[in-house]
Structures are given as structure tokens and as C-alpha cells.
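Run 6-phospho-beta-glucosidase through structure prediction, thanks.
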Amino acid sequence: MKKFPNNFLWGAAISAPQSEGHSLTNGKSASTWDYWYQTNPEKFNDNQGPTDTSNMYEQYKEDCQRMQEIGLNSLRTSIAWTRLLPDGQTVNDEAVAFYRDYFQEMINHGVEPIVNLFHFDMPMWLMEKGGWEIRESVDAFAFYAKTAFELFGDLVEKWTTFNEPLVHIECGYLFEFHYPAIVDFKKAVQVGYHTLIAHTCAVKAFREVLPKGQIGLILNISPAYARSESLEDKKAKEVSDLLNTRSFLDPAVHGEVPAALITLLKEHNLTPMTQTEDKQLLRENTVDFIGLNYYQPRRVQAPENPAFPAKMPSDLYGHYDWPEKKINPYRGWEIYPEALYDVAIMMKNEYNNLPWYVSENGMGVAEEERFMENGMIQDDYRIEFMQDHLAYLHKSIVEGSNCFGYHTWTFVDCWSWLNGYRNRYGFYRVDLDNNFARSLKKSGLWYKELAENNGF
Ligand code: BG6
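Sure, done. The structure for 6-phospho-beta-glucosidase is below.
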């Protein structure tokens, strides 16, 4: 039996824009997703937009019972900035009542809410001014963060500022998967820098409002593995880790941007605009914990035709198609649980053994209805996926990594950006043709047993 530490968090993660629905009613203003869907619905898989999503706005009470039924003792969700502060300044009282009741309901069912502030859902009023490209976004975010801490700090002990900051940067400014869908490496770096400073200012506000609480940052972690031991391939691994891991992890935990990253950006004329007080802000506002979302590793090799100055990250590290990789046939992503052990040991050795947790890990499956038998999705593939990852996580904990929990993506099937409802991840299936009715999958039963035994 692999036993996990006492009080280990067995949870799931979800986010406001992907699960609440009611995205343009009840006082909420438009995020970039609402705007993009209104103007370009054809971009979204099956024309599925952000308007309805999984209807937790109406079903949260029953959902909190469902959380308890599958043994969750925590859930990470987010607050929608555009619901709480529709114009950036004025508090929406209905939103306050909703979130307070939702968090209280979780607590009543033995589920600790972990609350995140930004999950790719930029308010449209701010995007119209320039979004994360302008320094003003930092103050706007810090105000929102402070407001949330004041309004919900008595119910929520653990907070996080951003989910996967690299994703809104890359997808919005390099890969065209998020609005404004432009390709501009220099702007991407500026957006990244303002996101980092916004995170830091939110941590500063947190220390003032909730000195006894804990605050962290959630990063998508895709550790790089080099094609070979050659100097060039090893260099590609270093650069990938610098851009994709250390860019946010080092400042969040150690209080400074890595010198090697500053040099690399300078060499490629990508240095962002900064302010003199930023260094001190970073130094003084490090986090209490880190959340790592792990899905798949990154296989890299020296870029074949490096452009100078770099126009895309692929000019700095090349993608390597590892022939031996095991693939999730229902989503196309590599399955490599060993990497979870590697990042856990990295947290131990390189990041002061700071408390951290797996804030997302899960298996997406397209057309999952094909696995429905006797009214239940028989998702044995998902159980195997979790078990394999947990075995490596357990090994790292035995070796001293300071991991305090495991959250799967996700609790109920949810809407996922341009992918709509294509890839299903939940413990509960959501029926889109029947008012988002939920039905338990086999993995939910397995998770309950796992949580009850605190191991497997
Ligand atoms: C995570 C994000 O990285 O991936 C979620 O935090 C997202 O917001 C999830 O929904 C799954 O993504 P996809 O592309 O498989 O639907």
C-alpha cells in the first residue's frame, strides 16, 4: 500500500469561466472569451462558447454534495474578475453572495476551497486599453486581488494569483489560441513581465490583508528532456527550462528573475520595460507554496535553423519527436509519469523544498461517450493514468519532496477554451443535451477509495 502524508489534499481543480456558465448575466461583464465568441464563434469547437459552460452557477449546492461523494477534501476553483468587479471598480453584490455561499457550501461538505484569481479570463474593458501589455493592468489586478482577499479571506485560507501564466502569454501573443491572437515575441515578453509584477503586487496586498493565510502561484510544468547528451541538445534543454519553468518559478520562490534569462532576452532584443521598484517588489514578495499542473514533458533538441534575433521560442529550442513516447490516444498528448518524480525532486533540491502540490493532472478523452456502459463511463484508462502518476509522486514524497496534495483536472467535465467540450476530463460526465446533468464515472468511485485510504 502506498500511503500518503496525513492531511494530504485529495482534490480536483476547475475554474470559474469553464464551469459557472451565466457568463453575461447576473451582473457579470464580458471577458475576452465572451467577446471573441460573439465576434468569431466559428473558431470554437462545435461553436461551443463560454456562455453556458457547466452551469455550476446554478448547480453548486448539488455539486458540493457530489464532491463529498467522491471523497474530495479540497477543490481549486477561481473567481471571475468580470463577475466580482464588472467595471474593475464596483463590487457586484450578487457575485459576493454567490461566491460566499459556494465556498461556505464546500466547507460544510468537508471540502477546502483553494481560490485562484486569474484563469485566462481577461476583462474586456481592460483588454480594450491593452490588457497585460500596459503597466496599468498591474494596478487593476492588485485592486481586484485585494478586494477578493477582503471579501472572502474569512472563508478561504489558501489562495493563488494566476493559473498557468505562460499559457495566456504564449497562446495570446505567439500561438493564436487566445485573444488577441497575435504573433509578437517582444510583446509576449512584456505581457509576461507585467503578469509577473501583477502576481507580485497581489502577494504584497495579500500580506497586508491576510497575514495568516497562504498564497501561491500555479504553473504549468513541462520539464524538458534533451534528444541527446550533445552540448547543443543540452543547451536547448536549458533554454527551454529557463523560458518555460524558471521564468516564473525563480522569481516566485527566490525573488528574482534568473540572470541567464535576462541575458538571453537582451541578446535577442526582447528585454521588457521595467520600473526601478520592481526588483525590490520581487525580492520582498515570494510565495508560500507552488501549484504545478503537469500533463506532459517537453522533448527538445538544438534548433535546426535558429533565427537571430529569435522570433519564436522554437528559434531557441527545437521540438524533438521522441520515437518511444507513449501517447494518450484520445487526446494526443504524451504520457510520461516519471516526469512528476523529476519535478518533485527539483522542488526539493532547487526550490528550498517549499511546500507544493499537484494542482492539475489528468487525462483528456475525446468522444468519451463511447466508453459508456450501463449508464456509467468506464474510464479505466483514467484510473491507470492517475495510479501511474501517483506512484511516482509517492516515491518522491518518500524521498523527502514536500508535496501536500494532488488535484486532478477536473471535477465535472468542463468547457475548455477553443476546444469547447471536445476533451473530457471530469469525474462526472456532463450531458450537454440535458441541462448539464451529471453522471458519475468509474474513476470517481476509485478516487473515493483512494481518498478514504489515503493511498492505494
Ligand atoms: C489546463 C488548463 O492546462 O488544461 C485548463 O488549466 C484546460 O484550463 C486543461 O481546460 C485541458 O485542456 P484541453 O486543451 O485538453 O481541453
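The chain has a mean pLDDT of 98.
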